[in-house]
Amino acid sequence: ARGTRTLMRNFMSTTKGETHVLTSAAEVTESQKSEAESWPIWDSTEDFKAQKQPKFVLRYRLEERVVILSGSAQLSPTNGDPPFVISAGDACTFYAGFVANWVVTSPMRKHYHYFDAAGEMCAEPSKTMPVIACDAEGCGKECVDESYSIETEDICPKCVQKARGPDKRRYQAAVRCELGAPAPETGGAQPAAATAKRKTPPAAAARSSKAKAR
Fold first, then answer.
1. Which of 111, 95, 13 is nearest to 62 (CA)?
2. pTM (predicted TM-score)
3. SS3 for 72?
4. Contact 141/133 with Cβ under 8 angstroms?
5. 143 with 91, same domain?
6. Are residues 9 and 110 in the same domain?
7. Number of folded domains in the chain?
8. What is the pLDDT of residues 26-71, one digit of tens each?
């Protein structure tokens, strides 16, 4: 569609990486600014009242495009790429799968919108994807990207791996899920704890060897 092609052309950039595209304020066009005017605005002013230089981790499940109206933030990608700064006037596209530690260094306001794989505008991730938290006691970690479903519970991979005793045996029947649905490539694979080969205890192995020798 014409609108999609225009959006993608407007948000091409001078600095490109595998996970994001950053356009400095000097390179942002009037067309980009005009396009973003109808998008929602994210405002961190209230966050600054509660916490000096708010810090958080963002995992981009969908592509997000932004135009910074005011303020600044330092982003540190978790994949080891160099940190970078976005500030007033900049435009940036964050691709799906990008994960970064954010430090908002001065109160920020930005226009933003989400886009699907075809480049079409779409709803926010919270409105299009399930919210899943680990039900293991004392955990509660978000695990929508990968979880193991057992009965009415959702368990994160870490809790499955460290499970002991009755829980470990119970998790052997769990189904591996992605975004809340059975993993398509496996049709519901069992967790590592369930598929790991069981080692024969030394004493049992010795008895077996003696039996074969007779």
1. 95
2. 0.57
3. strand
4. yes
5. no
6. yes
7. 2
8. 999 999 999 999 999 999 988 777 777 888 878 788 899 999 999 9
